[in-house]
Description:
By secondary structure, the protein is mainly beta. The protein has 1 helix and 11 strands; from the N terminus they run βββαββββββββ.
Amino acid sequence: QVQLVESGGGLVQAGGSLRLSCAASRSIFSRNDMSWYRQAPGKQRELVARITTVGSTNYGDSVKGRFTISRDNAKNTVYLQMNSLKPEDTAVYYCNANTILGAFWGQGTQVTVSS
């Protein structure tokens, strides 16, 4: 059974930091690129960051230099370290695995940045 379980969201002041975690089923974690997306109210879901199975990364333009994605293969977990948070980072953040069987999503975790 494929599972993606996010944690680590919350309320933080502008300029603060949060770290999100996504624990994945071993069956999909080791074989697939992992990504974080976010969706703000009234907006489309957008890619925040992606990390390949060998650790290559890419980021959305709005988070470059502030967010860092990483993965711990021993724990089947992907992380998103978010620094210098801005109110416009407020959104529900989703973990994603895009596999040959299709895309799998976590339930999402709310991040709220107050000004």
